[in-house]
């Protein structure tokens, strides 16, 4: 789970963006002592995520606001379900409403889309994982949403693992790929994971000769994926990437790959329709 300080840092930036000098509508229209109770209600089916930033938006705005979560992180919900209840100062509830909803809607969208990919590969041993194609500043929350949807996380940042992609290999062209990768292994701590992307079958053996940990087969056809898995023969984790959609992911998983990375989990997820409903007095 995410550290509370990390969540608060992200949420504070969003609140400052949304109400840099306060909520002038609430201050002009709502009596200072007015209170309100609002329900977070699903307008469509989905998987819930974003509970922590949703609650933090209200708590940071006014610590006296009570947020009662009815749905746990990763819970599936149906249209009409109540996911949370918020009670407290009407001004504060309305001031935090949009930011809280933005987080819950966005993260639930990521979790919901991820769950569809996970369901599509059910019965295989393939893991669905995210990529670094995330919303700037929201990577930690979106990765949590992927986990809430049943997926797994790839490396968090460039600092976490060696991942040699096509442009890296293009720079070292003219040298032995095997030797370049062996030298990279010598330069990093022994605990560092090394992954290499290839886009042709004939690149597999020179890469595996360097004793790398994961080989990514990028934009391979299904036949080439099967052949790639056969050639790797358990000597490294096999990841498939490129051309992955809900229509293609089951076929990719059936080739025997270990991991399927899907940028769409975060860069193409649609926000789920959730509403914060305050009853009229």
From TrEMBL:
InterPro entries: Aldolase_TIM (IPR013785), NadC (IPR004393), NadC/ModD (IPR027277), Nicotinate_pribotase-like_C (IPR036068), Quinolinate_PRibosylTase_N_sf (IPR037128), Quinolinate_PRibosylTrfase_C (IPR002638), Quinolinate_PRibosylTrfase_N (IPR022412)
Glycosyltransferase as UniProt keyword: yes
GO molecular-function term, one example from the UniProt record: nicotinate-nucleotide diphosphorylase (carboxylating) activity
Catalysed reaction equations from the record: nicotinate beta-D-ribonucleotide + CO2 + diphosphate = quinolinate + 5-phospho-alpha-D-ribose 1-diphosphate + 2 H(+)
GO BP field: NAD+ biosynthetic process; quinolinate catabolic process
EC number: 2.4.2.19
GO cellular component terms attached to this protein's record: cytoplasm
Superkingdom to which the source organism belongs: Bacteria
Pathway: Cofactor biosynthesis; NAD(+) biosynthesis; nicotinate D-ribonucleotide from quinolinate: step 1/1
Sequence positions that bind substrate: 98, 131-133, 155, 165, 197, 218, 241-243, 262-264
Domain Quinolinate phosphoribosyl transferase C-terminal, residue spans: 110-277
Family (UniProt): Belongs to the NadC/ModD family.
Subunit structure: Hexamer formed by 3 homodimers.
NCBIfam families per the UniProt record, alphabetical: nadC
Official protein name in the record: Nicotinate-nucleotide pyrophosphorylase [carboxylating]
Species assigned in the record: Candidatus Microbacterium stercoravium
């Amino acid at each position: 789970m995410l550290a509370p300080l990390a969540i608060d840092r992200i949420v504070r930036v969003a609140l400052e963006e949304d109400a840099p000098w306060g909520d002038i509508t609430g201050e002009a229209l709502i009596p200072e002592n007015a209170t309100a109770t609002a329900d977070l209600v699903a307008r469509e089916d989905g998987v819930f995520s974003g509970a922590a930033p949703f609650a933090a938006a209200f708590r940071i705005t006014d610590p006296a606001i009570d947020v009662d979560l009815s749905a746990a992180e990763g819970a599936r919900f149906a249209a009409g379900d109540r996911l949370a209840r918020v009670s407290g100062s009407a001004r504060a509830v309305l001031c935090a409403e949009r930011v809280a909803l933005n987080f819950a809607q966005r993260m639930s969208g990521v979790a919901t889309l991820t769950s569809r990919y996970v369901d599509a590969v059910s019965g295989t041993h393939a893991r669905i994982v995210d990529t670094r194609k995330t919303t700037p500043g929201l990577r930690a929350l979106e990765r949590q949403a992927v986990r809430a949807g049943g997926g797994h996380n790839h490396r968090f940042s460039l600092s976490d693992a060696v991942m040699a992609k096509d442009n890296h290999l293009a720079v070292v062209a003219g040298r032995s790929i095997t030797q370049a990768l062996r030298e990279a292994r010598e330069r990093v701590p022994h605990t560092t994971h090394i992954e290499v992307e290839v886009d042709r079958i004939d690149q597999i053996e020179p890469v595996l000769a360097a004793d790398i940990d994961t080989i990514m087969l990028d934009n391979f056809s299904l036949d080439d994926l099967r052949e790639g898995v056969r050639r790797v023969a358990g000597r490294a984790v096999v990841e498939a990437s490129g051309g992955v959609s809900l229509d293609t992911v089951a076929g990719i998983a059936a080739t025997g790959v270990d991991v399927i990375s899907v940028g769409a989990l975060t860069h193409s997820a649609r926000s789920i329709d959730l509403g914060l409903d305050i009853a009229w007095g």
